[in-house]
Write a structure and sequence with these properties.
- The complex is a heterodimer.
- By secondary structure, chain A is mostly helical.
- Chain A has 14 helices and four strands.
- Helix content of chain A is 75%, strand content 3%.
- Chain B has a two-stranded antiparallel sheet with strand order 1-2.
- Chain B starts with a helix and ends with a helix.
- Chain B is mainly alpha-helical.
- The model of chain B has no long low-confidence stretch (mean pLDDT 86).
- The chains are: A mainly alpha, B mainly alpha.
């Protein structure tokens, strides 16, 4: 890696948040809200990418970590009047802890078993939300009152604050992912993805690395979940359903697994694809399904993954 | 009603569920056993079977039994065709890579679900049972059709067992499952076996759905629970072990029915899913996997 390559990469990752910052002054209201939502969901996808892209673990249960953040922040605000800032921190801790607990059990399996175990844990968590429906209001969900959604005295329901907070979250996760991709820790994760046995033979504690990666991924996903609850004010079990385990997989696949900007690109593309499609048909699930099949058949590396392979080898 | 008859009713309801579950799970298990493919769209094949059964029964229109019998033939064939096409166009091109096929079958799940929603609509629709008689027990009357379901499912499973254990086709399947490369060396058309097994698995789910549709109604989201329960059954029974699958289906189906009657169905499902996760963690081959694999 040349110094020039490093600069280019760093510049690119500064340019994207800067562009997003500038965009808010020119965007019409509708896209303003959409982009805030995309940034929060892209943070979720970026968290998923740490496990799926860099470590090579296909989890089908990340909705439970997103949901952990969503419900920790939402329930604490609703029933204990906890403010957004401490709620956010507690949500991240809850996500990391939950992911570590799931990981201690699920990481004993690998491959197909790992997918099914994560799927089952997520399903149990989703059903638990229904079981405690008196507090969580199940699928119907609840709305967090606007007066509780305040950060440092600013109302998060206000569009400009909302956009800024989403951008801050997104920039933060981008920095975390960039740091992971560049660190020796990230290189060990990639080694595990490429050849787990060989990494073990080299003396690395593979289980511990995977566990830390999953906990980090859970923390980032929970941060996105908490931000979703606080910024958009809605908390419902639908956001912790199996669909929200599959969406990040789709977004990451589309943008390019194991690329720092891929999750954002994939989320943005898929969000507007579905948004445009729903303008003239309600059958948007066709699009989701066909996109999944087409990506895995013809385009398994996604947009940025292919770009990196063909033209831009310095892309992190 | 006293506790005894109440328990009897719960057991009978459980047995009906278990019979259909065993058929569905057998399909999933067969596909996983021979092809090593986890078919996430299996529940949608089940749903498709029920929806097609409604169409057929609706179109035939005459005596309910006639419509039902037509559905029992047409629905599995059509579902089998869909599955064969999906196998040929998608799974084969992926080289049956475990992770890629999971993602692809998730995509298939959405496509089939949306197709059903767009054509069949969001309503639940019933199919009339082909026979209408009640068996009068001393405490309550019980639908004779439900007993027929149990008998039909048992007969079908015996058929599958007979095909697998006693016929040339079954031998090919078992050889392919045992060692794909060696099977190919012995001139077994492995590609065609894979296509056939995938279609057969889907057809078993479709038959299960046709049997249940007079009891449960057809709905475009009805594939979710059978998928989850089939996963649970296949894992507890041992991945790819047919005997284990049937045994586990009986245990899970019966206990699901009984627990749902006496406790909250949600709690029953939470416990079942957690149990599966723990079983997979502790014994990755499943409870019966080592013995009957």
């Amino acid at each position: 890696m040349t110094a020039g390559g490093l600069d280019r990469a760093a510049l690119l990752h500064l340019a994207v948040p800067a562009l997003l910052f500038a965009l808010q002054f020119v965007l019409p209201d509708y896209h303003h809200v959409n982009l805030a939502r995309v940034m929060v969901l892209a943070s979720f996808a970026a968290g998923y990418n740490i496990v799926f892209g860099y470590t090579g673990l296909l989890s089908l249960g990340h909705a439970m970590f997103f949901g952990a953040g969503l419900y920790t922040a939402g329930l604490l605000a609703q029933y204990a009047g906890v403010a957004a800032a401490p709620g956010f921190v507690l949500a991240i801790l809850a996500g990391a802890l939950f992911a570590a607990l799931v990981g201690i059990l699920a990481l004993r399996t690998s491959g197909v078993s790992f997918m099914i175990v994560t799927l089952m844990f997520a399903q149990a968590a989703y059903l638990a939300l229904h079981y405690f429906g008196d507090y969580t209001r199940s699928d119907e969900g609840f709305v967090v009152p606007a007066e509780l959604r305040r950060l440092f005295g600013l109302a998060l329901a206000d569009p400009a604050t909302r956009y800024f907070t989403a951008l801050a979250l997104f920039t933060g996760t981008l920095a975390v992912c960039h740091a992971v991709a560049r660190s020796s820790f990230g290189r060990v994760l990639a080694a595990i993805r490429e050849n787990e046995e060989r990494t073990r033979m080299l003396g690395y504690d593979v289980f511990a690395y995977k566990l830390v990666a999953l906990a980090l991924s859970g923390a980032v996903s929970a941060a996105a979940g908490a931000a979703y609850a606080m910024l958009f004010g809605y908390v419902g079990a639908g956001l912790a359903s199996i669909q929200y385990s599959i969406y990040p997989l789709l977004w990451v696949l589309m943008g390019g697994a194991a690329t720092v900007l891929g999750p954002f690109l994939g989320t943005l593309a898929m969000f507007y694809l579905v948004d445009t499609a729903s303008g003239f048909t309600s059958a948007y699930l066709f699009l989701v399904g066909l996109a999944l099949i087409a990506l895995v058949l013809f385009f398994p590396k996604g947009v940025l993954g292919t770009l990196r392979e063909r033209a831009l080898p310095w892309l992190p | 009603m006293d506790f005894g008859p109440y328990l009897l009713l719960a057991t009978m309801e459980g047995a009906v569920g278990a019979a259909v579950l065993a058929l569905t799970a057998l399909g999933l298990s067969l596909v996983f056993g021979v092809m090593r493919v986890v078919n996430v769209a299996h529940g949608e094949f089940f749903m498709l079977g029920a929806v097609i059964a409604w169409w057929v029964a609706h179109l035939v229109g005459a005596h309910p039994a006639l419509g039902f019998l037509a559905a029992l033939v047409v629905a599995p064939i059509m579902v089998g065709l869909v599955a064969a096409v999906a196998e040929r166009l998608v799974l084969r091109r992926l080289g049956y890579d475990p992770e890629a096929t999971i993602v692809a079958t998730i995509g298939l799940l959405y496509v089939i679900q949306q197709a059903a929603l767009s054509t069949f609509g969001p309503d639940a629709r019933p199919v009339e049972p082909p026979v209408d008689f009640r068996i009068l027990l001393p405490w309550f009357g019980y639908s004779g059709y439900k007993l027929l379901v149990i008998a039909a499912a048992a007969a079908l499973m015996l058929c599958v067992w007979w095909v697998l254990a006693r016929t040339r086709v079954g031998l090919m399947m078992r050889a392919t499952r045992f060692d794909r490369e060696t099977a190919r060396a012995f001139a077994i058309p492995v590609d065609r076996v894979y296509g056939g097994v995938f279609a057969l698995g889907a057809m078993l789910a479709a038959v299960g759905a046709v049997l249940i549709v007079p009891i449960q109604q057809a709905h475009y989201l009805m594939g979710h629970d059978p998928l989850l329960l089939s996963f649970i059954v296949v894992i507890i029974g041992g991945l790819g072990s047919l005997r284990g699958t049937v045994l586990a289906a009986l245990v899970i189906g019966m206990s699901d029915g009984v627990i749902s009657v006496f406790f909250s169905p949600t709690l029953a499902k939470i416990l079942a899913t957690l149990l599966v996760a723990i079983v997979l963690v502790i014994r990755p081959t499943g409870l019966f996997g080592a013995r009957a694999a």
